[in-house]
């Protein structure tokens, strides 16, 4: 699936709920189901420290595709991390760099995008794109 | 006067709205309070009827505006029971008041190796200005520890006071724990050692009656916006004997006596510390807030809030997994808590979706969070316009959130 198709799939899933609490229940579920983070990667350079919650993101290159691991100490943020990884992990640096992340707005998580918002979704997206750029540069 | 909560709530237009489809329950009063119509009208009224730069004009509007501004200085002095209105300096808020003091008092009275005493429960605003001073002038900061209950370790405080101590700067009430500190006792102890005391009243001025002469504090600082007044206005009360000796803070208009390139002389108190055009509209709004509080009665406010606090704590105990942070004997209507091992951010985010405005995080008191070994808390802070019904709905919401996160 392309990044765009994955985003549409996420939007579809969230559109089943009108109520905010149901949307957040789903986020919590996604957070709980996220693959466990490799403790060896819980390092300072992988830490994005927001005002309130911490996020760890680690990326590796496998056969031309970027595999991302993530974690957070807040479960809702972890749910958002899970969504981001589902959409972006397993794609090439170019695909990630060129992508327009419209699903965040569409599923009603736009408030988490504000640059001052404490969970730093903006910082997460920036970090993933930075990894993509670094891997691309390495590929030459 | 009986506390007519319905009537009081009608005075606060912002409270009557839905947030995320639910009626707003505003419990973030320790961050900022909402404004009654009389305050909103007073500030807007300045711009509608008397706006003019104060203190300089010979024309009618300037005189009226100056008078309204200076009336609030008298009103503030009276509210604090200050000895003179010259001892009331208007600032932009508590933070600026502390910065003014650390800068002017620091420059005048503090030098290499001198010590000042802070506490572990201070807001960053009463830590960082002193750290900057410490860096500039080699002043040493000593810190009074906090006990498990969230109270100051008074024994440690007594031991920290010594012949090198030049100032104690302590919060009247903790913004995180709601602990009311024994400031009167601390002032007596400090004065016995010849040390002046600054009290940070940001969390106190609107909750407990404050009498600066009875307290005998040397400085008392607070913000307007936490006492139902507009934002951008604050107060530094200082004893005349200190203020007169202290160097000015910022330079500019109003604070001068005579300016020439061979040397400038400064204006008298309180103007010496009020450089530039002040936020007179905000100050006039502050006057309306003082009137509002006095009309309700500070004692009546205290009693109502305290009863609501007791009720809230009792009800909240029923929430599965709730842990209160800080259980001081004396406290205001601030409740810091955690739900099991849930991150405060998760709790706050879900509560927001249910219409509740609470604060989560470190509350600008990271040393205190470190003291308790937690990343932050969820904080419900009540004002006199909050109700038992709101408390009940908070408890229901917390039970739901605890279940979702549990």
Query: How many DSSP-defined strands of chain A?
Result: 3
How large is the count of helical segments of chain B? 14
CATH topology of chain A: Sufe protein. Chain: A
User: Taking all residues together, what is the mean pLDDT of chain B?
Assistant: 96
C-alpha end-to-end distance of chain A: 26 Å
User: What overall geometry of chain A do the principal axes of the alpha carbons give?
Assistant: globular
What is the subunit arrangement here? heterodimer
Shape of chain B: globular
CATH architecture of the largest domain in chain B: 3-Layer(aba) Sandwich
Q: Would you write up a description of this structure?
A:
The complex is a heterodimer of chains A (140) and B (406). Chain A has helices spanning 3-15, 20-33, 75-88, 93-98, 103-106, 121-139, and strands at 47-49, 54-62, 65-72. Chain A has 140 residues and is of the alpha+beta class. The two termini of chain A are 26 Å apart. The model of chain A has no long low-confidence stretch (mean pLDDT 89). Chain B is of the alpha/beta class and 406 residues long. Chain B has helices spanning 5-10, 37-50, 60-80, 94-109, 128-137, 154-160, 183-192, 212-215, 240-245, 280-296, 298-316, 344-353, 366-372, 388-405; strands spanning 18-19, 22-23, 25-26, 88-91, 115-119, 140-144, 165-171, 197-200, 219-223, 234-238, 256-258, 265-266, 322-324, 334-339, 356-357, 359-361, 377-381. A 7-stranded mixed beta sheet of chain B has the order 4-10-9-8-7-5-6, with helices on both faces. In chain B, helix 10 (280-296) packs across helix 11, helix 11 (298-316) packs parallel to helix 14 (388-405) and helix 12 (344-353) crosses helix 14. The relative contact order of chain B is 0.16. Chain A binds chain B through residues 20-21, 24-25, 28, 51-53, 73-77, 118-119, and chain B through 20-21, 342-346, 349-350, 353-354, 360-362, 375-376, 400, 404-405.
């Amino acid at each position: 699936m392309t990044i765009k198709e994955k985003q549409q799939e996420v939007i579809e899933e969230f559109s089943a709920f009108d109520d905010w609490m149901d949307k957040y229940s789903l986020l919590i579920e996604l957070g709980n189901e996220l693959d466990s983070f490799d403790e060896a990667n819980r390092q300072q350079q992988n830490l994005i420290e927001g005002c309130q919650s911490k996020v760890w993101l680690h990326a590796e290159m496998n056969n031309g595709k970027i595999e991302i691991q993530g974690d957070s100490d807040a479960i809702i943020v972890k749910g958002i991390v899970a969504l981001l990884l589902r959409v972006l992990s397993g794609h090439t640096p170019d695909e990630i760099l060129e992508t327009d992340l419209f699903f965040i707005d569409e599923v009603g998580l736009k408030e988490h995008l504000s640059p001052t918002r404490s969970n730093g979704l903006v910082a997460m997206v920036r970090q993933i794109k930075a990894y993509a750029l670094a891997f691309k540069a390495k590929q030459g | 006067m009986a506390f007519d909560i319905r009537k009081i709530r009608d005075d606060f237009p912002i409270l009557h709205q839905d947030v995320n489809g639910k009626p707003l329950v505003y419990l973030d009063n320790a961050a900022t309070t909402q404004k009654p119509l009389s305050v909103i009208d007073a500030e807007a009224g300045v711009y509608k009827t008397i706006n003019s730069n104060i203190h300089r004009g010979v024309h009618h509007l300037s005189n009226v505006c100056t008078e309204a501004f200076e009336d609030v200085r008298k009103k503030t002095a009276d509210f604090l029971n200050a000895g003179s209105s010259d001892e009331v300096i208007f600032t932009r808020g508590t933070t600026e008041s502390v910065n003014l003091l650390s800068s002017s008092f620091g420059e005048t009275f503090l030098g290499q190796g001198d010590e000042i005493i802070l506490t572990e429960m201070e807001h960053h605003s009463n830590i960082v200005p002193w750290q900057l001073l410490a860096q500039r002038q080699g002043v040493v900061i000593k810190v009074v520890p906090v006990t498990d209950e969230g109270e100051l370790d008074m024994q440690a405080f007594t031991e920290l006071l010594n012949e090198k101590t030049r100032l104690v700067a302590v919060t009247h009430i903790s913004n995180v724990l709601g602990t009311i500190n024994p400031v009167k006792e601390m002032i007596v102890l400090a004065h016995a050692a010849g040390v002046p005391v600054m009290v940070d009243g940001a969390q106190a001025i609107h909750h407990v009656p404050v009498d600066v002469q009875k307290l005998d504090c040397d400085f008392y600082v607070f913000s307007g916006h936490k006492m139902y007044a507009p934002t951008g206005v604050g107060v530094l009360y200082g004893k005349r004997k200190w203020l007169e000796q202290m160097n000015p803070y910022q330079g500019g208009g109003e604070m001068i006596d005579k300016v020439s390139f061979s040397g400038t002389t400064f204006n008298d108190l309180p103007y010496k510390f009020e450089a530039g055009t002040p936020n007179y509209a905000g100050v006039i709004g502050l006057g309306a807030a003082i009137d509002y509080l006095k009309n309700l009665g500070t004692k009546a406010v205290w009693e109502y809030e305290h009863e609501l606090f007791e009720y809230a704590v009792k009800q909240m105990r029923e929430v599965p997994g709730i842990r209160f942070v800080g259980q001081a004997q004396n406290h205001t209507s601030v409740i810091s808590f955690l739900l099991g091992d849930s991150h405060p951010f998760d709790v706050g985010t879900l509560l927001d979706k249910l219409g509740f405005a609470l604060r989560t995080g470190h509350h600008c008191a990271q040393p205190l969070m470190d003291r308790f070994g937690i990343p932050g808390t969820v904080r419900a802070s009540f004002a006199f316009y909050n109700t038992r019904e709101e408390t009940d709905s908070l408890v229901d919401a917390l039970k739901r959130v605890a279940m979702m996160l549990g």
